[in-house]
Design goal:
single chain, alpha+beta
Length: 105
Amino acid sequence: MIYIPKDASEITFVSQTVGTGIQVAVTSTPEQQSAALFQYIDQDKYLSTRKGQYAERNGASLPWRNQVDFRILQDFYVKVAGKRNTIQLSLDVFNLGNLLNKDWA
């Protein structure tokens, strides 16, 4: 379960340095990390409503999703050289709701 902090007092960051030696080291201060995290939380429609709470399972990505698939199969029997052979034709429609109305997907 993921907890979404309600303010900066609920989470502690430490300085982070990326790159050493010949490469240029970039250091992120705790204040920069905190600002970036809360900027991300505030811009997200779901996360911004869950501050100080735990995220629900699949709450941010797919809170409610239905997908209806449709398949029609037909077998055709053909005799060739005295042997019975089967040819099968199928029609598959994936996510039928989206085919009918793009807002249903």
